[in-house]
């Protein structure tokens, strides 16, 4: 449906001489005089979007005095009617900063939002009449009879002249209004306006302000030259000292983490030596058993077994077993008995269990350190931002003293951007190093065995983020670790993770997070955003807004998406029989140059460039949620009927970094009503079968509903849309996400250090 705006600037109660205006709506921009000549008022403005804002700036020559904004939404209730209104002008910050203007002037605008299938480019009669009346009074104009005005209005019957709705806002006495003729009867007295805002007085004030501005700029330049000696700015120096102190605390914490991981490594080494011994002993034990029961296999047991036992084990084994002499004397008897063996292996089992408990404890401590380091890093970031702002204000170039920005190359050989913006010596650094330098990692292996490699790995993973989240068997195999060894390492790592996983997340007051329920309520008050899951200890939230999209619009989007998208049938190589497909159809859209493939549980969904009509749906939904930035990809599912579904899963893929960062996923439901189910993660590293079990929270998702999964939801919770065979209609679901770690393997052009950090809260994502 076409929408166009007619706009006239009738007067400005600041009333200096030679006022001009600049008007912008969407990509259209025009300049004119104040008051606007009628010919300019009759040029319609195409309204690009219901959320567009028309901005009117007032200029004195080239100097901006201020501007006012008219959201198109605010004219929605006055469609096809002429509105005459005074708007407050926000003073230009440069002028306001000089403290010169007591308050902003106001603009008198005549507005007419014209809609309807037959909207023409001709100005509506009521608008033309009103403008002519006011503009003639404000300044000499060409006769309207000379201008190309179409005589028939858009809806002449529905909108007869007498019923024209005019809304007049009364001017404040302080500002007054300068109008003549017919207008004078509607506004405050012209005398009052003259007293306060005479043109002459205004011009003088402006000249004074400009002189004041120049003087301040001179002073500013002088201050800057003085400020080159940073000791002149104790605040800045203090902040630098604080920043240095925090940096060294972060360093201390890292060393602590390194100590913990080294301790763990030692424990692992001890445990694997003992395990190996036990295995050898078990083999020998079996042989004893076989010989004792008269098997034909008659390899000797003692010498071989004893030789292969470590000194360590020998000591333990002798506590439980007869001496060699005794054994020789009673060989037949002893060979029939396996109690000593089972005692020894029981002791080893207990030791192993003890070691695992210790690993869990170490994991907890590690997580506590990681959280503390997180909080310090945020504090550091805050201070850095503040000091950067101060520096910018004073234009001081003081050499950096922290660990950011001082290196040309970071320790992984990346350029300084990689560690400059926050020097987050954490997840991204360790993980990136691992992903990007696999040949380096393989070289560490270099014949020296896994222990050597593990030592290097631990030092690469530094603060433990990657160790806790992204290290998996695949990564180990990629750098050449043999399958069995990779499994062993992962078992230990998962003990560590279990310990860490049970730890609470950092409190909100330390690392703040704003939910979409709050942002949506702020952006669209009364739309109905509320929380359906609030778990502060796990920083996990879900927000819901019923009917965020009006029913008609939602159904028409549903039909458009269903019929126009190139839906794909995916086969999950891990869980699907050959030739069978996942129980839903899918498409993964990307934009802004991203080229990442979406990979999850054995499926690789190639990206499709987001079609323009999907972009419009996205913009609408993001605006309704109050999110500050646009997501850059969307997973779209088509559930053909209630037999289609998605099983328990978490969207913690590396692309979104949701396994360890606060992230946000925004979801729109269209078509049939289905149930959305949520439950806690059973624990990291636990086999998939344990995803069985009932939902803990569930709610219906209906046509036009928006909902979210936020914070660490993807780390701690699972979600699903179960089969509901009674549902006959189709449903489409769009989940918008923010890719923060673009995939190098796919050759995504956005891959690189600058894109590697995940948003910490949805408000800055
Ligand atoms: O259909 C839904 O509501 C959920 C879809 C989902 O979880 C996903 O696409 O990852
Ligand atoms: Fe999901």
From TrEMBL:
Residues passing through the membrane, by range: none
Alphabetically ordered keywords of this record: Coiled coil
Record domain Fe2OG dioxygenase: where: 630-740
InterPro entries referenced in this protein's UniProt entry, alphabetically: AlkB-like, AlkB-like_sf, ALKBH3, Oxoglu/Fe-dep_dioxygenase_dom
Signal sequence range: none
Segments for region (Disordered): 139-162
Pfam families for the chain: 2OG-FeII_Oxy_2
Coiled coil: 199-226, 345-393
SUPFAM superfamilies per the UniProt record, alphabetical: Clavaminate synthase-like (SSF51197)
Record-given protein name: Fe2OG dioxygenase domain-containing protein
Organism classification: Eukaryota, Sar, Alveolata, Dinophyceae, Suessiales
């Amino acid at each position: 449906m076409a929408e166009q705006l007619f706009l006239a600037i009738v007067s400005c109660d600041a009333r200096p001489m030679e006022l001009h205006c600049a008007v912008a709506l969407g990509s259209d921009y025009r300049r004119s005089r104040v008051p606007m000549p009628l010919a300019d008022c009759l040029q319609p403005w195409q309204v690009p979007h219901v959320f567009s804002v028309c901005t009117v700036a007032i200029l004195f020559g080239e100097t901006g005095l201020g501007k006012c904004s008219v959201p198109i939404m605010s004219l929605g209730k006055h469609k096809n009617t002429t509105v005459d209104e005074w708007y407050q002008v926000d003073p230009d910050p440069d002028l306001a900063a000089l403290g010169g203007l007591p308050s902003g002037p106001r603009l008198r605008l005549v507005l007419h939002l014209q809609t309807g299938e037959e909207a023409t480019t001709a100005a509506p009669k009521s608008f033309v009449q009103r403008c002519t009346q006011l503009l003639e009074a404000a300044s000499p104009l060409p006769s309207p009879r000379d201008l190309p005005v179409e005589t028939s209005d858009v809806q002449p019957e529905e909108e007869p002249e007498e019923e024209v709705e005019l809304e007049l806002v009364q001017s404040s006495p302080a500002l007054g209004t300068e109008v003549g003729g017919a207008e004078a009867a509607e506004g405050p007295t012209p005398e009052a306006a003259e007293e306060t805002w005479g043109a002459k007085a205004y011009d003088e004030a402006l000249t004074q302000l400009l002189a004041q501005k120049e003087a301040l700029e001179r002073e500013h330049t002088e201050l800057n030259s003085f400020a080159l000696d940073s000791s002149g700015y104790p605040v800045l120096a203090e902040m630098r000292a604080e920043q240095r102190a925090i940096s060294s605390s972060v360093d201390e914490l890292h060393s602590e983490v390194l100590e913990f991981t080294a301790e763990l490594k030692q424990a692992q080494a001890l445990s694997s030596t003992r395990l190996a011994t036990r295995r050898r002993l078990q083999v020998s034990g079996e042989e004893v058993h076989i010989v004792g029961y008269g098997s034909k296999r008659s390899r000797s047991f003692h010498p071989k077994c004893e030789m292969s036992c470590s000194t360590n084990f020998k000591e333990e084994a002798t506590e439980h077993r007869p001496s060699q002499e005794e054994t020789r004397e009673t060989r037949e008897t002893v060979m029939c008995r396996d109690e000593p063996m089972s005692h020894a292996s029981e002791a080893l089992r207990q030791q192993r269990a003890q070691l695992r408990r210790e690993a869990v404890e170490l994991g907890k401590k590690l997580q506590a350190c990681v959280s503390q380091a997180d909080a310090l890093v945020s504090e550091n970031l805050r201070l850095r931002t503040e000091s950067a702002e101060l520096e910018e204000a004073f234009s001081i170039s003081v050499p950096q003293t922290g660990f950011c920005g001082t290196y040309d190359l970071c320790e992984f050989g990346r350029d300084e951007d990689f560690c400059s913006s926050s020097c987050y010596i954490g997840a991204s650094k360790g993980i990136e190093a691992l992903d990007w330098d696999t040949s380096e990692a393989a070289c560490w292996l270099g014949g020296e065995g896994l222990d050597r490699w593990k030592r290097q790995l631990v030092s690469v993973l530094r603060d433990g983020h990657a160790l806790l989240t992204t290290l998996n068997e695949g990564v180990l195999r990629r750098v050449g670790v043999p399958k069995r060894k990779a499994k062993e390492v992962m078992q230990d790592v998962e003990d560590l993770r279990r310990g860490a996983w049970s730890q609470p997340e950092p409190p909100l007051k330390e690392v703040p997070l704003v939910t979409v329920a709050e942002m949506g309520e702020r952006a669209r008050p009364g739309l109905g955003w509320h929380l359906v899951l609030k778990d502060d200890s796990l920083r996990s939230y879900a927000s819901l807004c019923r009917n965020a999209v009006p029913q008609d619009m939602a159904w028409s989007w549903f039909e458009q998406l269903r019929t126009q998208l190139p839906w794909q049938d995916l086969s999950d190589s891990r869980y699907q029989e050959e030739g069978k497909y996942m129980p839903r159809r899918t498409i993964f859209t990307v934009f802004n140059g991203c080229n990442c493939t979406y990979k999850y549980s054995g499926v690789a969904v190639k990206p499709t460039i987001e079609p323009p009509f999907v972009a419009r749906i996205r913009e609408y939904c993001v605006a309704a949620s109050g999110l500050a930035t646009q997501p850059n990809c969307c997973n779209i599912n088509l559930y053909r009927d209630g037999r289609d579904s998605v099983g328990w899963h978490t969207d913690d893929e590396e692309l979104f970094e949701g396994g360890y960062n606060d992230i946000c996923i925004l979801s729109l439901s269209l078509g049939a009503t289905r149930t959305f189910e949520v439950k806690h993660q059973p624990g990291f590293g636990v086999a998939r079968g344990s995803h069985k079990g009932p939902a803990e929270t569930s709610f219906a998702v209906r046509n036009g509903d928006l909902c979210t999964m936020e914070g660490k939801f993807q780390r701690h919770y699972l979600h699903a849309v179960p089969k509901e065979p009674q549902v006959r209609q189709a449903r489409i679901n769009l989940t918008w996400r923010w890719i923060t770690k673009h995939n190098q393997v796919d050759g995504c052009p956005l891959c690189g250090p600058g894109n590697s950090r995940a948003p910490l809260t949805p408000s800055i994502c």
